[in-house]
Amino acid sequence: MKFPEWMANVQRRVEQALEQRLPAAQLAPQRLHQAMRYAALGGGKRVRPLLAFAAGEMTGAPADRLDVIACALESIHVYSLVHDDMPCMDDDTLRRGKPTVHVQYDQATALLVGDALQTLAFEQLSLPGLFDDSHKQVRAIAMLAKASGSRGMAGGQAIDLDSVGKSITREELEFMHIHKTGALIRAAVMLGALAGNHESASDSATLERLDHFGKCIGLLFQVIDDILDEVADTATLGKTAGKDAAQDKPTYVSIIGLTPARTLARELAEEAHDTLAPLGANAQRLKEITDYIVSRPF
Questions:
Q1: Tally of structural domains, the chain
Q2: Do 72 and 119 touch, CB atoms closer than 8 A?
Q3: Range of the domain at 162
């Protein structure tokens, strides 16, 4: 199967899995459940689920297990977007080409949507029998919790908010994005790999390579995102273009410049490919996702 077809197939699977696992819109409290579905369904590139499926296929993970992991990852990601868009943070009105949750509903509902999606993620990962090995399942839950919390995504967001209007170094910016964006992307790769039944799912050398790949791809995704915020329009992005510059937020473009940022993106993509090279054809999907991320118009 060629990559575009594989990607579309995974995206369809994840949409269907989310549709099934999100609370029904008519279930009380209806407004909250409607808003959760509004936030999570019908949009997004599903990059984190794609990475989980690619790593999981490499280690022989069952597709139905990857469905659940993908839903957990996407629930955490969407919750972070809902909260990130609120007036107390980035105060944005557009996400995935439609009004943000606090605009479509209200701020209190948006806050609860994020809370409920976060807990739904851990409810899914703790389903009885999801993993053959209960120790692996506990490890997966802990991995997602760490990637989402103060030493991961939430901590990176805190650093981001504290950096507005300040002059920071490239090293400080990288530290922020390793946490804010990179932690969950890195976890997506590792959770997918951990879900496998092949020996490679427990091989320390393979897992170390995949972890380093996840670090590279997390930074790559953020560099490309910073470039697109500078050069793309709102219609292309599905969110307000130029928001980082308008809010005086430090980005790779503002700190090192547009051309060096493009060079950095290519270097990170090369490093990601080099990291995967010893894994051979089994890592082909991960390589293709790398190329997909770096080929976004920039």
A1: 1
A2: no
A3: 3-294
